Amino acid sequence: MKTLRRAALAVAGVGLLAAAAVPATAATPKPDNFRATGKAAGKLPTTKAQAATAACGMGVGSVNAGGTAGGYDITATRPPTVLPLETFKLFNVRASTTWYFTDGAQQDYYSGLILQGSNLYGSIVSYNDVAPEPDLGTVKLGTGWTSFRAIASSNYVQGAAPHSFLYGLHSNGSLYRYTVGETVRAFGSAPGFGTVKAMTLIAETATYDTLLVSLTGGSLYTVRVPVANPMKPIVKKVRSTGFAAYESLIAQRCGAASTLLSAFDNDTKKVTVYAVSRATGASTVINNYGSAPATFGGTANFLLTGDAGPQLVGE
């Protein structure tokens, strides 16, 4: 229970599903309904092997202003193939971390951390093949999150010295880091992030995490955050322009050392897909695979991935 993806289980233990529900209850689909609709629908990449296929892909969950959840199954073809995920009624989500899938012996789970209003919640969707409807469990982890504009999670679980962190972008211009278990504990902060518009995690290693962030002016940076405290991020410029239009960035591993990046423009309701080499500052290779409609209209987008990966290796 040390990893962030299981934080909600750690908070409430086996009583989580019975005790749930500060956000409104939801009619949640079974696992197959997280797949895309249409004949070309494929399985979302939740393992290292799936992420390393020739045409890399990702699952992106999304929640709109009305509290309906949906999303996209995205494949890096030219132009990108973007298939809608089936929709279901969830609850209002202001921001979310990655949602992780856990395949259990008797029950399966999707779990993630969300912001709703001023509160941080751990949420779990639980289902099995017997119950007619899966359960939604939510546990309040803390209040006072009104001024946080975005959150992201890291889970380094496939090597020595595993760690899990929650990163929060605050309106005061600082980036905050937390550990999450039975309680949420501060684990460092750093100023200087007031112009960040969107952020996503692209690397998890034993000694550091790396965020990819875009600024309101359109530039793109990596932010390497060493695991050790005090928190002293290392910031490198990747591009000077080109990313101002995007309200959210979602990253998934692609191959041995690359990142598939989906960038969402809410104004045009389009997603642009990029293949990004291992980040090396301005010399980072970024290939544009084109844009495609993303008409679900989500206000909160987040990665759908596997219980233990694929581990991100973007820097």
Specify the structural class: mainly beta
Distance between the termini: 27 Å
SSE ordering: HHHEEEEEEEEEEEEEEEEEEEEEE
Average pLDDT, rounded to a whole number, is: 82
- Model regions low in confidence, pLDDT < 50 over at least 5 residues: 1-35, 38-43
Number of strands: 22
Helix content: under 10%
The 3D shape can be described as globular
Strand content range:
over 45%
Radius of gyration: 18 Å
How many distinct helices? 3
Assembly category: single chain
The largest pleated sheet is described as:
10 strands, mixed
Topology:
Blueprint: H1 7-12, H2 16-19, H3 48-51, E1 57-63, E2 68-75, E3 81-84, E4 88-89, E5 95-96, E6 99-103, E7 108-116, E8 119-127, E9 135-143, E10 148-156, E11 163-170, E12 175-180, E13 184-190, E14 196-204, E15 208-215, E16 220-226, E17 234-239, E18 248-254, E19 258-265, E20 270-276, E21 286-293, E22 300-306
What does this structure look like?
With 315 residues, the chain is mainly beta. The protein has helices at 7-12, 16-19, 48-51, and strands at residues 57-63, 68-75, 81-84, 88-89, 95-96, 99-103, 108-116, 119-127, 135-143, 148-156, 163-170, 175-180, 184-190, 196-204, 208-215, 220-226, 234-239, 248-254, 258-265, 270-276, 286-293, 300-306. Strands 1, 2, 3, 4, 5, 6, 7, 8, 9 and 22 form a 10-stranded mixed sheet that branches. A 4-stranded antiparallel sheet has the order 10-11-12-13, with no helix packed on it. Strands 14-15-16-17 form a 4-stranded antiparallel sheet, with no helix packed on it. The model is unreliable at 1-35 and 38-43 (pLDDT under 50).
